[in-house]
Amino acid sequence: MCGICGFVGSGSGETLERMSILLRHRGPDDSGTWMSAVPPVHLANRRLAVVDLPGGHQPILTDDGQFVIVFNGEIYNHRELRAELQERGHKFQSDHSDTEVVLLGYREWGSRLPERLNGMWAYAIYDRARGQLFCSRDRFGKKPFFYTRTRDGFVFASELTSLAAHPSVTKTVSRPALQKYFAHGYIPAPWSILDGVFKLPGGCSLLLDVRSLDYRVEKYWDLVLEPFERLPANPEEEWGEQLRELLDRAVHRRLLADVPVGVFLSGGIDSSAVTAFAARHVPVGQLKTFSIGFSEKSFDETSYGLLVRAQFKTDHKLETLSVARARQFVASIARQRYRHILSRQGAHQIGRQKRTVRHRFIQPSQAFIDQLAGARHGKRFQFMIGLKLRANEQPVARLVETLLGKSDAEGLARIKL
Fold it and tell me: Contact, 103 vs 117, CB < 8 A?
């Protein structure tokens, strides 16, 4: 993960540096800033280098200096888009930076660019000629983007701690957001825990006029659930094959990086399926997997991960977490990533902090329900599926077979679901 931040209006280079420093845990490999005095625009990036290590320094400017970008995320179809842009006459400065693809893609397609992107992202592009700041977030909102319109400016950042470091940002708890948290277990976009601070919703873009500070948010994509026109004779077989093809393609895209790639393996359905698909594209014994166990046996599920490791012959690393060790991380995680604490993802964040030090890019194994439907819709599906599973455990076995295929599912039959 990387981190971005910036502001338009009041503030100084020192303000930008304070905001950037608070994101250094997101991007330990590189950092950069860009500033304009008139109109006052400040942009910063903290980079975790994954693609084009020497050529991906940010912020990146076009050769004529009109456009400048700060970017967080990864574009999986950047090679195809680069080839298309080159055919249209665009000249690239980097070898294969996906960030530069987004930058020149915006020059070519403008606000329609997000519709062409396959990936996860949050970025801001400043068009100096038009005096506009264009910001976008990926379809399901995997990459965070917080923003606020202050009395004399506009501020944005990947995390609230960074955004709140700007002196113009009001640090008052939002009561409506707090009510939503207790109602849903999380704070849905566009709200945030701070009053007047918003999350750019997934599938949305924001366009700001840097002179008037007027902005508008527009949705470029939405998930629409519609009934099927027809049902196949054997829906589990036909749709299962389509699902396996899509997941295999998605996992393979995420394995393409210039640094070692690994999988967080809990032994559950989602991470086990990711491991199974990844193993198809990595030589036997070279796929790296990571698990977190607990010294408290009633919480520990590492035995399931070990079964998956044995089935797919991965290079597995296990980290055992005691209560004493967990206490060492709580304070720092709460300061840096309290969004994860509020959504009960603290253990995952501990693992990410521990392991990304040695392996610079770890492929997330987040729930397939959230990946396929988004967290907002996934909550509904989880509830409905939960009702079925409590009534009958057979759907679990069928789901495993649908995701992995019959042969791999039989190899995992020892796992008690």
Answer: no
